[in-house]
Amino acid sequence: MSWTFPATAIDTTYFTHVYYGFVLPDPTTYKININQQDDELLANFTTTLQGKEPPAKALLSIGGGGNNPATFAQMASSAENRAAFIDSSITAARKYGLDGLDLDWEFPQSQEEMDNLGVLFEEWSAALAKEAAATSSRRLLLSAAVYFAAEFILADNRSYPATSIRKNVDWVNALCFDYHGTWDTSVTGAHAALYDPMSNVSTSFGLRSWVSAGVPAGKVVIGLPLYGRTWQLRDPAEHGDGAPAVGVGPGGGLMQFKDLMDYNVENNATGVYDGITVSTYSY
User: Fold this and answer.
1) Do residues 210 and 163 touch, judged by C-beta distance below 8 A?
2) How far apart are CA 265 and CA 280, in angstroms?
3) pLDDT, tens digit (0-9, with 9 covering 90-100), for 45-94
4) 4 — pLDDT class (breaks 50, 70, 90)
5) pLDDT, tens digit, for every residue of 144-172?
6) Secondary structure of residue 62 in the 3-state scheme
7) DSSP assignment, residue 195?
8) Is this prediction's pTM over 0.85?
């Protein structure tokens, strides 16, 4: 993981739950791999957050964007592999005093993998309950990062196991961003648009789809980006959502929030609120 500031710097008046990300399962044994750096950081991460005022719950996130989804697919494909993964995740959570576990599998590539994900959640939840009862401990929380919608609308027809999620997962973090980006350099777009009157690629559509699939609204959390997408405009006078572009902008098409703020000041950029998409951009 990339650690740029200590856990002591996290202001828990803003947060109820904080994730440590990311660790990965071993591609052969499917047990959670805690390397030396993770081992050194995790215990301090947990005790620091739990000792703050107000305290925050500490969760361990497994996976993350850019990691090999095939490892997760193979892990979820058999009862033996799932058991090794689940048992090792519980062992790690208890070793470091964590409050819960999170799965960030980006993303199951077929309906069969989606169905296996549902079985994984069912067995994981049962194992968490069994372990808590056997040790007289508080049951570990279970969450998951998921696509912005309950069904993949931009690819082949595959849907998340909503029934299993409703029964077995405490909440899901819907990744409500990256709707537009460097894969389309000819036109700008609000990459975390709350609304889009021209398509279903929007947060409002995605969240409604989760609720329509049977996941209670109280179990769906909006995932917001702390970065922006950038383009080079074809004509600086023509800006806004859907403006013609000729390529990526500063930062290679992506800038972190702090860098964006600094860039805007240094370049005297103009900020604009777009009430249609409910987003803000600068030019």
Assistant:
1) no
2) 16
3) 999 999 999 999 999 999 999 899 999 999 999 999 999 999 999 999 99
4) low
5) 999 999 999 877 789 999 999 999 999 99
6) strand
7) -
8) yes
Tokens matching residue 3: 């650690």
pLDDT digits (tens, 9 = 90+) for 94-144: 999 999 999 999 999 999 999 999 999 999 999 999 999 999 999 999 999
DSSP 180: S
**Amino acid at residue number 169:** V
53 is catalytic: no
Closest C-alpha among 103, 22, 7, 107 to residue 57: 7
By CB neighbour count within 10 A (0-12 exposed, 13-18 middle, 19+ buried), where does 66 fall?
A: exposed
In sequence order, what are the beta bridge partners of 18? Answer: 58
Query: 53, 106, 113, 266: which one is catalytic?
Result: 106
The residues, ordered by sequence, that sit 6+ positions from 232 with a Cβ below 8 Å of its Cβ are: 245, 246, 247, 248, 249
Q: Contact 57/2 with Cβ under 8 angstroms?
A: no
Query: For residue 102, what are its two tokens?
Result: 């999170």
93 backbone φψ class: left, alpha, beta (φ>0; ψ -120 to 50): alpha
Rounded Cα gap, residues 43 and 39, in angstroms = 7
The reported pLDDT for the residue numbered 41 is 94
What value, to the nearest 5°, has the Cα angle with vertex 31 and ends 105 and 28?
90
Q: Taking every pair of C-alpha atoms in the chain, what is the biggest distance, in angstroms? A: 66
CA distance 165 to 175: 16
pLDDT of residue 22: 95
d(CA 215, CA 207): 10
Q: Which residues pair with 62 in a beta bridge?
A: 23, 103
Residue 64, pLDDT score: 96
In degrees and rounded to multiples of 5, residue 149 shows phi and psi of -120, 160
